[in-house]
Amino acid sequence: MARTGPKSTAVRVLVWLGVIIAVLTAVLAGGNLAGQASWAPKLALDLEGGTQMILAPRVEGDSAISEDQLNQAVSIIRQRVDGSGVSEAEISTQSGRNVVVSLPGTPSPETRQLIQASADMNFRPVILAGDGAPVPEASRTPEDQLPVPTAEPTNGSDTNWVTADIYKEFEALDCANPAQDQRESSDPTKPLVTCEPATETTPAIKYILGPVEVEGGSIVTSNFQLSQGAQGAVTNDWAVTIQFNDEGTQKFKTVTERLNQFYVAAGGETGSDPKSQFAIVLDDQVISAPRAQASITDGRPQITGSFTEQSAKALSDQLRFGALPISFEIQSDQQISATLGGEQLRMGLLAGIIGLLLVVVYSLFQYRMLGLVTIASLVVAGVLTYLAIAILGWTENYRLSLAGVAGLIVAIGQTADSFIVYFERIRDELREGRGLVSAVENGWKRAKRTVLASKAVNLLAALVLYFVAVGNVRGFAFTLGLTALADLIVVFMFTHPTLQLLARTKFFGEGHRFSGLDPARLGAVPLYRGAGRIRTPDVKPDVVRPKNTGAAAEAGRRMTIAERRLAEAQDKGSSSAAGQAQSSGTAKSTGAAKEGK
What we know:
The protein is 50% helix and 15% strand. It is built from 16 helices and 13 strands. Strands 4, 5, 6, 7, 10 and 11 form a six-stranded antiparallel beta sheet that branches. Strand 8 (219-228) and strand 9 form a beta hairpin. It has three domains: 7-41 and 340-509, Multidrug efflux transporter AcrB transmembrane fold; 50-118 and 324-336, Alpha-Beta Plaits (2-Layer Sandwich); 120-322, no CATH class. It has helices at residues 6-33, 45-48, 67-83, 109-116, 164-172, 246-265, 309-321, 342-367, 371-395, 402-431, 436-468, 472-502, 506-509, 519-522, 549-558, 561-596, and strands spanning 50-58, 90-94, 98-104, 121-131, 192-196, 205-209, 214-215, 219-228, 234-244, 278-282, 285-288, 302-304, 327-336. The chain is an alpha+beta fold.
């Protein structure tokens, strides 16, 4: 079986890089044709402007909002906004009472609804369920047949919670009436009559719910994923998973043990008893009411149903970010202009162009034509980064802020560092006397470890900065990490393969004086030194006096302190040996003269 040579491997890697760029371009073009994406990256609040909403807390009487409550509310709202995919949002307090939410662009209805749903979340058992439409007056239950409690209710599922007034409210409730959403917050210790709004696949349902039995604050986290069957196999149905804290786990276990008995008594999946359902309530409105098909003892329930990926994610976000210590209402909603504006963006881009030009000038001055590889590598890295940012703006709603632009500018120098490390390794190999093809391969083996270590540090710094910071600083960290990944791709898939091919050309391979790899200018000592003398590459060469002063100066600059000391010792040793030889020759001549006498 024939071995694949470095040249064919280099060509194949370059082809794969071209395929990656072509695929990313095609993806962005497809989104643009569908009207969902744009060729230009999305801009953040500081560069484009957006929407500002002022949330005022809803309180009863003259009760005051504590600073801790307000700060906790800001933290949860920030998590909600970030979890919905909105990037570079600003959330702060105003006058120690209101919360100001500033979002770039125009927020989607889902994001706006998520921010508005700033109330307490809880879990209530279902006592009764029915169609979301009101019962006609003529068909409503007569007064003498309305339910009358016969005893004190023993748990949240007890029908003794249902009084005549509650049943009248249940029959009159119209879930299609928007005014139903404007009711005051209910007492968690009493039953609740409320609705589950209609969706694209399910009609509206109204419920009589028992008192709160598990608080939303007991939720540690939630997620959405493809559900697992009884045997652990993954199905094609989406599910939402919840994890409770220790207190919530115990309460949830107690409730699901009771509700599961109603489920089994009704015939399991073939039956239908509303008292087997546990309603998840947000803003006194049911967002989901799953049945307790088992007793959940580990505090990790899985909610299944007719979920799409989008609806599962929405429910997961509501569960994860739903619990707030206080509820809010939107006091004002207005469009705001960019906080910095286009002038700052132009100045940032100008700074980036100046930095790029300085790198180009330095590369051409230091490496001559080899510097063109640096320039081409920077162009490829820029294309990859641009495509990634534009696609992330479409798919993940990522927005580029001025801090993100600063991250891109800083990345220019970091990207150029990788090329410099590689080029200097190659030049070191040439000074050892190797040919260019061998120097490229050996230099790469040594340089790639340094490059990987450097980029690992950059990525670690970016990750730490991203997760501990908020706001615009996260944008800086994100672009810093993104460009580090792009740099690795370019060095491995473009720079090194390109040099493998260039090393086999006459211009670079023979060390043209404008190639940047001229052995004479680098002070190289060949492995073959004539008369059958071959120097071992690992042994440092003797000091060689280059023919021209430029080469001598370059060689002198590249010598380490240890090499200089070794060279001086060798010079002294050579001089001493020559002196001894001369003295010995003189003594022999004198002896011969005396003997002749």
